[in-house]
Amino acid sequence: MTPATTTDPARPFGRVLTAMVTPLAEDGTIDLSGAQQLAAHLVDRQSHDGLVVFGTTGESPTISDGEQHAVLEAVLDAVGDRAMVVAGVGTNDTAHSIEKAQSAARLGVHGLLVVTPYYNKPPQAGLLRHFTAVADSTDLPVMLYDIPPRSVVPIEVETLVRAAEHPNIVAVKDAKGDFGALMQTLARTDLAYYSGEDMLNLPLLAVGAVGVVSVVGHLVGTRLAELIAAVEAGDLARAREVNDELLPVYTGIFRTQGTIMVKAALRELGLPSGPVRPPLVDATEEQVAQLRVDLAAGGVVL
User: How many CA atoms lie within 13 A of 181 on its CB side?
Assistant: First the structure.
């Protein structure tokens, strides 16, 4: 399935993407109709070019492969004709990641997100072998996900330079916050960088990122599009104004784990979300009360 959105080679996944939560019913089972409703809301009302389904925000560690298959199929049916649907397929097992990539490709997703293998602490040679093996397994464009706070091991510049030689590895979701490494990689490769840490959206865009893979995009996707447009137009004063307005939203969603708080925010907005799965725990009444204050300060009307 080809999305209606025409992709620019410099922005292979578009500008504004959100790492979508996985809506659950109150008994903890998958809410497929809710996933479709939320996907349509994000694309049609929040200015999204695409969705990352089963990044960490989608609770991928606790959603079975069969459940992930069903949700991807549902989201593709809902928005796959007008937005990029990117499947998070990375695990800390290369063979399993390849299986997930091939399964997602058969469904018709438009791209793959492959996170640095976590817990194993592989050396850089292991990272490169893992990434290229997954990229070899399909013809889909691949976005690497560099997030050492979760994976421990960062993707070093030389590894990114080598990975960029693979024709399918075209982008990086950056949640590393190492601006020196980012600028060296941009200077030496054609990789498209996407901000993967909302608090750093503006500075990452200012030094060359082409878009965002956001969590707060569930709530403020249209304003993130405005932020990106201002940077692209060279209007950094306006970009800073937009970013400053969004700071309370960033703060509110990340006072604790992001999935917990964004699901709470979606419930406040009457959108599909449901509970989280253990070992996560739902937001407390006190946390939700503070979240209402934060979102109001950031201009999100509940």
Answer: 15
Catalytic option among 118, 145, 193, 194 = 145
**Helices 65-79 and 32-45 meet at what angle, rounded to 10?**
40
pLDDT number for residue 8? 82
* Residue 179: closest CA among 167, 195, 163: 195
* pLDDT single digits (tens) 110-122: 999 999 999 999 9
Annotation says 119 is catalytic: no
173 in catalytic set: yes
pLDDT at 217: 98
Mean pLDDT, residues 240-265 taken together = 98
CA 85 to CA 72: how far, in whole Å? 8
Cα 105 from chain centre: 18
Catalytic residue among 173, 176, 193, 194: 173
Q: CA-to-CA distance for 124 and 127, rounded, in angstroms? A: 5
Taking residues 266-282, what's their average pLDDT?
Answer: 98
pLDDT above 80: residue 182 = yes
How many whole angstroms separate alpha carbon 121 and alpha carbon 154? 10
Task: Classify strands 142-146 and 111-115 as parallel, antiparallel or unpaired.
Answer: parallel
- Distance (Å, rounded) from C-alpha 296 to C-alpha 289? 11
- Averaged confidence pLDDT in the chain: 96
